[in-house]
Amino acid sequence: MADRRKPMRPVAPLPSADLPVVAIVGRPNVGKSTLFNRLVGRRQALVADTPGVTRDRKEGLALVRGRYVRLIDTAGLEEAAPETLFGRMRASSEGAVADASLVLFCIDARAGITPSDEHFAQWVRRQNRPILLIANKAEGRLGAASALEAYSLGLGEPLAVSAEHGEGLADLMAEIVDHLPPEPEPVDFMADAFGEDMFEGEGEEGEVVLPARPPGPMRIAIVGRPNAGKSTLMNALLGEERMITGPEPGLTRDSIAATLFDDGDQFEIVDTAGLRRKARIDEALEKMSVSASIEALKMAEVAVLVLDATLGVHEQDLQIARLIEREGRACVLALNKWDVVEDRNATRKAILDRLSISLAQMRGVPVVTFSALTGAGVQRLLPAVRDACTVWNARVPTGELNRWFESMLERHAPPLVDGRRLKLRYMTQVKSRPPTFVLFGTRAELLPDDYKRYLVNGMRETFDLPGVPIRLQLRGTKNPYAETGRKSR
């Protein structure tokens, strides 16, 4: 039975296909991420006064003078061998330029023109892409005068801006729009939003029954400890080397989102930085990375918890699973590096036994085994995510729920509290995402935790709700004589 609520006008989907791509490139620490945040209108990329904060390409949707663009923040361009970390970062930036409709080449106006600026300006010129030269950190008169040195790069007139202070952005946006390819014919996105499948049908008394899951992409957060293979999994799902990977732990610093279409469904997948124990997080930059990972988890519908199957379940894995449960997200357990596991039956049993003992709320969580490096088994992940999301959105009819509730009371009556029996009357589901139920009754708020677990486990088994948090709230009946001091008969 679906949830019956008043029909709500959906938000029009933003145009996502065939948007012009604007890539921000330049050497490290010239303010590319700060400019990216200014143009997308929020602090989406990590910013710190440290060179090399950005490692992976980060995309954002920016509205520039009435036109949507896909804005890409890239790692700093540096000369390095291809097999090194900086070489892989440069290759990622080069890939962004290859896909770009417009390149914003940034320099630091305060530092002046460096040999790296000159070298990469020549490289960008050879890519045959429209280029705008951005002299960042050009606040005040002195900065604007310093920006004039950028003429020597041969990339045209430099645009003096200060991304940190918001100066010169209006002129920059105008130039971006002028250099974009012609805008395609407009599409009535709102008409597409109200398709025939928008509503499930008529409810009682003319109410409209909304679908179990709202329209839009399914949001997935890939979480786990450092070096568990999250970025490699992201690349395997996307079918391209989008994320920088390697043997070094902690390569991913920011939460990187990408859109994937699979079997008619749209997914927004977010790769997050590895979550370590709190006591081991010292640097301010790593604290920001962890905060970005937690924020991505809060915005997700399904969390894919990636474990290194060769190492089993670590205490930090359990802490991350508890965080997923506390945030009320659906979960899929992803056992990576399965191709090098010797005794697979014993490994799977040990992991599931540890989870069932330490995390009762994760009982029945779907498990997918694969090798992100070779791609074997990765195709089973998205179907498991779909199933977990369906359970997360599930609703139980009130009549069916209360028939089950009566049978549970008959099988095991509530215990006495302070020598008096609790009178539990009925239950109802108040929301999904995750499934949340309210139990009403006299002094119901005094119900012991072990009886609550008895009810929750029964709901999980009877109504087939594996692997998702189930919330059970208690509402006691108000005593009309409590405030007067009179005793009820």
TrEMBL record:
Keyword entries, A-Z: GTP-binding, Nucleotide-binding, Repeat, Ribosome biogenesis
Matches recorded under Gene3D superfamilies: 3.30.300.20, P-loop containing nucleotide triphosphate hydrolases
UniProt xrefs under SUPFAM superfamilies: P-loop containing nucleoside triphosphate hydrolases
Binding locations of GTP 1: 26-33, 73-77, 136-139
UniProt record, GO biological process: ribosome biogenesis
Domain called EngA-type G: residue spans: 20-184, 218-393
Matches recorded under InterPro entries: G_ENGA, GTP-bd, GTPase_Der, KH_dom-like, KH_dom-like_a/b, P-loop_NTPase, Small_GTP-bd
Similarity comment: Belongs to the TRAFAC class TrmE-Era-EngA-EngB-Septin-like GTPase superfamily. EngA (Der) GTPase family.
Protein name in UniProt: GTPase Der
Gene this protein is translated from: der
